[in-house]
């Protein structure tokens, strides 16, 4: 095995020389060949390299294969190359590798392209939502699991793929779980010669996949797409360093599992003697201990979210300033999901010469990625996990201890280029108490998006779908109910035409898709496009702590009395105008928000919806918001908190909202965040009260009984009835406004 210097040190020289403009062509060429040579040597020394032939044989002789190999053994980067070299891309077929996270798909694709000596987008590329580097010649394609699911809508047999590798399957994201169920069926359908009849019969036998399309135009076009095509068998590979091979093997009918032994470099695991009372404090102490006492090498710290990262960053900078100048050479970088992707990618760049890189990351850097230079990992042992309460329909993020699998993945980010150390900030006895794996996301998230996609794929019986782990029937029913209320499904839970089909085509949460579709009727699609694009990227407001007042004053210039959504539109328009005035029009497409807007716009235009602007008529826009987000309506309580009408949940306005102080009577929100309080974020005020009209009972869709309250949900309307004594009160949310009405209890019967 060749001995290697830490990648960071060598690369740093390179980048600094480049910055100084001192690199001659000869130097550049020499550096290029040296790097190429290093990569070749590095690849040869990976544990997986010695079993290449055996692995290829296993893949050739098994249609489903489970591969477990230690972190850094070379699964993600090498296996697709082995299979490509073994001819598994003949006939122009593609090897697809799914990752749970965008950052992994992008960074690994870049690395593999470099290893293959090709330009990204040629033989090797990636495809993630809103970003794609795929060309006709791409044969090794890294993508997110969610993206492959969307591809299945247009190509249900995934006919362009010869192999699909589901990487990091232990993460059990909801997309991975659904994908596994889908791939199981697709694989059965594709194994053996296929003609149209047998194809349909096979589908009938397998989950009823695609059956719903038998009568519709989409099915006809799908069948046309496959006419005359003989689909070859699909190879399916499930991979991870930390999955329970037995569970996966059982799910795939006793599929073969193989183990790739060994790792390239050892990682020392260190624990604390006692539990830490304040893990952020312990993180800082450990970080500076490493910095001052350990040898060179970059440090990766796992924290739970953006706020925590920003506050630790501030404290690190403060402490650094107190150190002697020689010890101040630390470059602090962060990576979390709402950070713009260019910023995320900065962590993969080498630190300036002589500097130590400290990366503060959420769990998006936990699996798959190799961050060059990392020698030390600090793992406080916590993660922010999604939870879903089917009862209230509210999703939130809470901080919980990691699982053993997550701890293993975190330590595996070290020891990839040189031996490493992982500092777990809890005692070893605590590690033993951790659960082996994380609870699958499908058991703890809102399923409406996934159900909509499954319905669009023709899976009628959601409860009966062959999930690896079934979601709770309460969560399925709640999501079905939401989709019916949004008009995506009929009362019989069939995909509605055209709304359901249109919503399924948009790569967005159903409620956003519905808002866009409605906006074309409210003549404000331009404004809704801006809003949805702005909400689907990181916050446009940057509030560095040291300039908080300045940032607040600047934000006030845009704030609208009508709400956060109109405020976002004002910011976007001002930015657009600024670019126009400064003759930067051409660079406009480059901003991420614009990119999202134009990408969603593309989908919208394909549907034939009219993109019209309501100009400054925000009333029309707010009406449209009310029509789409009616389930997220909340009413002010005497104590200044709000009660969500559809769930009864008590919430508060998030401090980032323009309504934090003014507090209108009735609001529509689009995000529920649980931190120290139950907050709602991104709000608009509802209109003034309107006269209440009586409604016929037949339109009642749902009924909840809660304490003294009766809640009725109509399609697009919410009514809350509180019964006190002999009177009940109804609150009606309608695009025109909201109203309260009191009646005597007896009249309720006739309602
Ligand atoms: N961007 C990179 N820069 C430097 N080395 C890299 C890079 N990507 C991968 N490597 C090298 O290739 C090795 C194998 O990486 P790979 O991602 O294939 O491993 P893996 O088995 O899939 O790990 P994991 O289970 O953690 O995803 C790494 O340990 C590292 O030595």
TrEMBL record:
Domain Helicase ATP-binding per the UniProt entry, residue ranges: 56-261
GO biological process terms, semicolon-separated: mRNA processing; positive regulation of transcription by RNA polymerase I; RNA splicing
Biased composition (Polar residues): 10-23
A Pfam cross-reference name: Helicase_C
UniProt keyword list: ATP-binding, Helicase, Hydrolase, mRNA processing, mRNA splicing, Nucleotide-binding, Spliceosome
Enzyme class: hydrolase
A GO molecular-function annotation: double-stranded RNA binding
Record field: catalytic activity: ATP + H2O = ADP + phosphate + H(+)
Domain Helicase C-terminal: 283-458
Annotated protein name in UniProt: RNA helicase
Organism whose genome encodes this protein: Camellia sinensis
